[in-house]
Amino acid sequence: MDQSITFDLDLIRRYDQSGPRYTSYPTAVEFHPGFTADTYAEACRNSNASGRALSLYFHIPFCDTVCFYCACNKIATKDRSLAQPYLERVYRELALQGALFDRSRRVEQLHWGGGTPTFISHDQMVELMEQTRKHFTLADDDSGEFSIEIDPREATPETIALLRRIGFNRMSLGVQDFDPRVQEAVNRIQAEADTMAVLGAARDQGFRSISIDLIYGLPFQTVESFDETLARVIDCGPDRLSVFNYAHLPERFKPQRRINPEDLPRPEVKLDILQATIERLTSSGYVYIGMDHFARPNDELALAQRDGTLYRNFQGYSTHAHCDLVGIGVTSIGMVGSTYAQNERTIDEYHAAIDAGRLAVFRGVGLSRDDEIRRDVITRLICHFHLPFAAVEERWGLRFADYFAADLARLEPMIADGLIAVDGEGIDVLPRGRLLIRNICMAFDAYLANKEGPVGFSKVI
Ligand SMILES: C[S@@+](CC[C@H](N)C(=O)[O-])C[C@H]1O[C@@H](n2cnc3c(N)ncnc32)[C@H](O)[C@@H]1O
Ligand code: SF4
What pLDDT shows up at residue 452? Predict the structure, then answer.
């Protein structure tokens, strides 16, 4: 398939509005406390009949220092002794969760996210993986996608070697920006040499699909300064890049109050940075996967997009479709069968649930048939920029034009604006529409159709 994108400033300005990122459908806004730990446990037991592979997500919430822009769920602390009591609860949760799933179900995907997973000590990393192996069957032949988020300030080449030994084979590195002025303004001083050392060690150890995280829209960034960061990042040759849009929402994310809004690039400068970024990355041989993600054309994500096997869930894009996803640790979200379930969002509540011998699920949602159909449509559009009606009709036993008549009508302006092309066979997202894929998916979101407008989501661009 054609993986190109076109940056159309006028269209982007017109369509720029708040919208979900569709790591789930329905989105977390629809999760409710009527969905309990018991509902979750039942869904897990029922899912065993499918024999589907598993994906495990672990949330390690701690960070040594706080980056002022950060919107992640984290606890900034210098007190490393907080990790052990937390991990003790994670081990107990592993036992509770492991008991729900057949041991024959292989874990093909595993991810440590945060916070900063490498906040914990080497011994703790080894122990966490051992405990995981005690309760789940990991695909240990390196065929699994075992990934970890690395803060290069919190990892040495020895850390990387150890992570490889215990089974990891993918990683993403938080960089954000190499410019010292930007780093100072966001309280993330990170020497380029540290990033290089970790990257070099990862290559030596045989990590695949190494990814780098950048953010545009941070204080003092200009088109020129960010282009300089990009040039240096491209020189390091990562297989993938995530270029996130910084949304300044200080009322929601407390650390952001320490960023002076006057230092932020103006919206038109942000758009210029985005445009320059796309030009720089595509001319350097990266392809746009979608939703902030770029990859080399021979990276497995780009290949999966071309051959139609790409998938997307809470862990982002992946080649392991249709696993049941088990979320472990504070705030983690699981996706098992036709349900989503989320663990307690504060560490105290999480500890309390586990100490009482309970799963820490505090809310979730069971999908209706309509939710499942729409989730299928949205996932296909986000992953492949193409929706063949026949595939949806066959899978769900419906006539697309009838079932989605109202949704198709909502697409009309996007057809007129050249974002998409629709014919009797399906929907094609055109190069102009690819940056606006969220808007296109929003047309199929039944929850938004019933609301005044999207509430509590960040801007699309
Ligand atoms: C959990 S962190 C990655 C691991 C590690 N904590 C680190 O920072 O290196 C996940 C990523 O989210 C992105 N991020 C965090 N807050 C953001 C925000 N407000 N806007 C956009 N991206 C953000 C950053 O690129 C960061 O690398
Ligand atoms: S960006 Fe990473 S290191 Fe910085 S505060 Fe957020 S989670 Fe922690």
Answer: 59
